[in-house]
Amino acid sequence: MNSVEDVLNWADKIFNQTGEELTPIQKKILEGAWKGKKHREIAEELHCSESQVKKEAAKLWKKLAKELGEDLKKKNFRYMVEEKHSASKNSRLYQCLLQHDNVNIGGQFIQTIEDKKRRSPSSPDTTQNKNQSPIINLKDAPKLTCNSHRTSEISTLKQWILESNIHLITIYGLNGIGKSALILKLVEEINTEFDYIIWKTLDDAPQLSTLKTELKEFFSQSQATPLSTIIDYFRAYRCLVILDDVENIFQSGELAGNYLPDYKNYGKFFKQIASLSHQSCLILISWEKPREIAILETENKPIKTLHLKGLEQEEATKILKPKKLTDEEKFSDLINIYQGHPTWLNIIAIAIMEVYDSSVSDFLAEQNEIYLGDLETILESHFERLSPLEKKVTYWLAAQNEPVHISQRPTNNELSKSEFSQAIQSLCRRSLVEKKELENQSVFHLNPVFKQYIITKQK
Ligand SMILES: Nc1ncnc2c1ncn2[C@@H]1O[C@H](COP(=O)(O)OP(=O)(O)OP(=O)(O)O)[C@@H](O)[C@H]1O
Ligand SMILES: [Mg+2]
């Protein structure tokens, strides 16, 4: 097995055995893994988020593990393939892959602990002053470069964090909507207001005890006498902790925001951060709004939630312009259909370039329903997480032509009133159902692109 083509053919054959085909995203992941690329680099090529690539890759390795062995990962993929096809275990390439540094460092303002070891963090009463040398660790943050910025969301977040001393902020929204990009930009703008900033991903669902140990290690590296708890650090210093990919500690197949069995203690931790007095902030980034947060919000605690939606027209246009698509006057139609969602727009722009000679008009003229293409895989990640109850409601909503009032539930008695309300509430917490006001009443409808995905799935 010498080339990427050989590997793709080989993987395709394995998929064909179960009547499946490799999707374009899976092909790119295989190609990237073969060439030793990082998830981030693959995501950049695919114009989707790093976590999307990681999730797709996990599924892919699971499938190929049957052929190659249970501990298959991106890092050892090439080795396992070569091993299977009698290549040498000691090949130079394998050694390189094992040494491949997976750590990725975000923007230019990052400073390492080593650089800062001798620095003494400011005491609580001096944190009003700008801290010119905060200790920052963004190793876990995705590396993103965006040419447009969400100024209004940034200013809301700044106000919450810097003026209102909000302790716990949840940012939730669809995958690839730009949650991590937004917080990276925020960190870039407010990092001097803090003593410590750390970004942790919950991608591998760490136990809370592991996370706390890692946080304490980070805080204590510049200290002669380490403090006992995270809250002690939150009180003594101004800390900003970002937990990204929080959906990984929620149970798939259940209503949104329910913790995995061994992860309920995270809820208590979040409640503690929200309830106790300190001068720090914890930001949670998630596909789903955690249930606890919804309850805490009613208790007058210093917490806030931001539901992140698509980009405004002007900002979304900045994504399309560099792609050199023609018919700029039609950009706004495209942005409306794909809701200013940066990942969706990037993916659709590629389809327009590849299949419609970059003509937005030709693309729009051809479609009598919303074109999905490579978006299907992205939408599938959301669908897969739904509970059976939510799936039922989703199918029913997809068959409705108009938004529905909560009293208009399915008439076949399959669902009780409370089950229906629960499902709608949960789908809203996943951003898959949207609520709007119609004639002074709240009505609900499926996100139109997701609706198209459900309709296509049923065909
Ligand atoms: N404001 C923006 N302008 C232009 N592109 C953006 C913007 N925000 C995000 N993007 C692009 O959209 C893609 C997804 O962004 P990001 O990773 O922040 O999404 P996310 O919501 O964190 O996704 P996930 O939930 O899967 O982690 C990236 O390629 C990023 O460059
Ligand atoms: Mg993200």
Explain how this protein is built.
With 459 residues, this protein is an alpha/beta fold. The chain has 21 helices and 8 strands. The protein has 4 domains: 4-99, no CATH class; 113-307, Rossmann fold (3-Layer(aba) Sandwich), CATH 3.40.50.300; 313-368, no CATH class; 377-458, Arc Repressor Mutant, subunit A (Orthogonal Bundle), CATH 1.10.10.10. The chain has helices at 4-16, 24-34, 39-46, 50-68, 74-84, 92-99, 113-116, 151-163, 179-190, 208-220, 230-236, 264-275, 291-297, 313-320, 331-337, 342-355, 360-366, 375-384, 388-398, 417-429, 448-458, and strands spanning 135-137, 168-172, 196-201, 239-244, 281-286, 303-307, 433-438, 441-446. The strands form 2 sheets. The protein has a 6-stranded parallel beta sheet with strand order 1-3-4-5-2-6, with helices on both faces. The chain has a two-stranded antiparallel ribbon with strand order 7-8. The longest helix has 19 residues, at 50-68. Adenosine-5'-triphosphate binds at residues 47, 49, 51-52, 142, 144, 146, 148-150, 173, 175-181, 287, 311, 319, 342-343.
> According to CATH, what is the class of the largest domain?
Alpha Beta
CATH topology of the largest domain: Rossmann fold
Largest sheet: 6 strands, parallel
- How would you describe the shape? globular
Mean pLDDT, rounded to whole units? 85
Radius of gyration from the alpha-carbon trace, in angstroms: 23 Å
**CATH architecture call of the largest domain:** 3-Layer(aba) Sandwich
**What structural class do the secondary elements suggest?**
alpha/beta
Share of helical residues = 40-55%
How many structural domains?
4
Low-confidence stretches: 87-129
Reading the helices and strands in chain order gives HHHHHHHEHEHEHHEHEHEHHHHHHHEEH
Biggest sheet, spatial arrangement of strands: 1-3-4-5-2-6
Full CATH superfamily name of the largest domain: P-loop containing nucleotide triphosphate hydrolases
The counted number of beta strands is 8
Estimated share of beta-strand residues: 5-15%
